[in-house]
Amino acid sequence: MSGRVVITIARQYGSGGRTIGEMLAKRLGIHYYDKELLRLASEESGINESLFVNMDEKVKMSHLFKIVKNVYHGQLIPPESEEFVSDDNLFNYQAKVIKQLAEEEACVIIGRCADYVLRDNDHVLSVFVHAPLDYCIEQAAQKLSMPSKDLEKYIIKTDKRRAEYYRYHTGREWTDARNYDLCLDSSKLGMERCVEEIISYIKVRFPDWSS
Predict the structure, then answer these.
(1) Which residues lie across from 129 on neighbouring strands?
(2) Is residue 160 over pLDDT 80?
(3) Under DSSP, is residue 185 helix (H, G, I), strand (E, B) or coil?
(4) pTM attached to this predicted model
């Protein structure tokens, strides 16, 4: 692969975004980063990985949450501060790792506001994978053993949490198509075709790219 392209994928739960990301990375022969970002952020900061896992793609709710945001600007809180292990600083270190990866290699990065963190990078393609709720329930049922009604509640709750996390750290709406280069309905295309569409977009957007 010539040229360095980083693909960020935001996804609704059950839409298959993670699977699409894995398939895409394998097809392009590049690294795929999801939960591994938490380990890398832990190594970078020296903060216990369990703290990153506990805050992953969620924020602690409070009555102020609807109006309070902490939009990411690239800052880090120093170790001597009482806020060093705060959720905000955990996000800051996670974002630092995402930026470092984007500067070092071509890769696929799943979730964690990566599209926003890398918004000023010319070699980044941001993707949002979505699907109707019925489809997401059907897909989730293949991995989670619970009644359909419980699955529906779980999916809605998970997507609500991701939307709140995104809004808190970016000041933007997670499902707003204007935040992304490409939005794909996996229920209409299927996962294989979603991968093909992303690759086609890369070839148009980055003409010096080749697999």
Answers:
(1) 11, 184
(2) yes
(3) strand
(4) 0.89
